[in-house]
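Explain this protein:
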Amino acid sequence: MNPVQAIGGSVCCNSGASPGGSYDQRAIEARQDVLVYTSEPLDKDMEVTGHIDITLYVSSDAKDTDFTVKLVDVDPDGVAYNVDDTIQRARYREGYETPLFMKKGEVYELNFSPLSTSNLFKAGHRIRLEVSSSKFPQYTRNLNTGGNNYDEIKAVVANNSIHHANRYQSRIVLPVKTVK
């Protein structure tokens, strides 16, 4: 396994396992296992302040896997700075009380815990969303088997899909404020 490396972000609870803050994400975005969605350059400044809601429709050939989402501010020179990120372990998509495993070929709706930010995306910048299945060591590993993860030694590679057409409307909702 070759998990996506954590470069910056929140450091609330990882005891210094990865550096916190905003860093250039282009090396991460060049990986084949990171999906990158980028807006056109903004015509004017856009303030995003509040909770950011994210819904993804996903499928996987693994019983369990993680999905990570990262909001990124891309400057006119192409430097991509992380703004905020979150993770959803698929088995806990309906709560932590009863794990629910995935079945190959089925599509599942994931509603992520809201991101919370206040960022001014300047005119000429682009808004980017990265989607992956890991951000290690910021978020603990998932060996994709449905097991305990903490005591497993064998992993399964998860082949994941994000659905965003027809009845599966994956989306991010940004709380845009009027810039005066």
Notes: The longest strand covers residues 46-60. Residues 26-29 form the longest helix (4 residues). The radius of gyration is 17 Å.
